[in-house]
Amino acid sequence: MTTAPELASQFAAEATQLDEELAEIDMLVSQASTEATRHEARRVTAAERLAGAADGATAKEIHDLATQVTLLTRRAALMEAQLEILQGKRRSAARLREVIDAHVAALEALTGESSADGAASDGTGETVIPPAISRIVLSAQEDLRREIARAMHDGPAQSLTNIVLQAEIAERLVRKDPELAAAEVRQLVAMVQHTLEATKAFIFNIRPMVLDDLGLMPTLRRAARDRGRGAGIPVDFSSAGVDRRLPVELESGIFRIVDETLVAYLAAKPERVSVELDWGDALAVAIRATQTPVAVPALDAPERGADMPPALAAMMDERREAHQERVEAARRAAIVKLPGRLVRELQNRAATLSIATEISNEGELRLRADLPPVVAPNGATPA
After folding, report:
1. pLDDT in tens, 221-267
2. Among 207, 239, 268, where does a domain finish?
3. Among candidates 79, 87, 68, which has minimal Cα distance to 39?
4. What is the number of structural domains in the chain?
5. Whole-structure pTM over 0.85, yes or no?
6. Cα angle at 83 between 81 and 85, to 5 degrees?
């Protein structure tokens, strides 16, 4: 069986390896940044020379300038894309490093509390972690690495391959038809811009850096805006009270729960989705989707109490009840609900963070998380 110190040692080895990878990535980022700046400066200079070429310039001179602009555009685009990917890898690796540090801290706390909790021991006073838990923790790291690698391969890597092919096409056309090559260069630039946007979205989905920089509320506001814009559905976002920074695991957990809920609601194609935050001693979050019920034709019947034979009054009462049932059925059909499996996953995840969850009869997801006390700059807790 694996002991807590042994598991901590494995984490330490992982942390050391990550530190080496981060140092290497930092070096590559610095080199790529320098190269990207240099290539962009050369591209701008060449483009200005081509634009300012005198009318008396020969076709060969114009051809040479166009070829140079195309090659420099290709190189600048590739360097910019490579720099963006390297920066994304660095942020992901840094986040993984933070997670490992958190696990090490948790193991140290577990070792200190072993006697009080009755944790298993190997007879030397060291806490023993069951093999199943050790495998879960270690496999989680590999799953994270595997998922990032797969997403990078299927997304930005494929896009960069297409960019290279497009650049080669433009390079060949420069020799034959400079005007057509210029159109291909414009298409190449559009592909680079699209790839950069896709890479930024990929990084945001893995771990939005704005969450670390600015906190939960700005990150959720951006996610609501981008998700709604992508789905073509209005997403209303509001926050009441004074927001503040929360512990890393709490911010990450709430963000993931809200974001996945938002995606699930938008997939149902409602008319609107709303996200509401209410800051106080506890953070209350409400996410709901709204859909207008199908219109039920109005009931053409006399008002209750009208003077009519008893049999006719009873028949009118039955018609009113049937009409009310149709109205209620239409209202229920318009309720947008989360998939049951997703609800269970979100509830389990919330429970690990001590976040209370509730699903209303109207399909609204409500979260409530107790917030740590605000600590004054001098370290005291305000009264």
Report:
1. 999 998 999 899 999 999 999 998 888 888 989 999 999 999 999 99
2. 207
3. 79
4. 2
5. no
6. 70
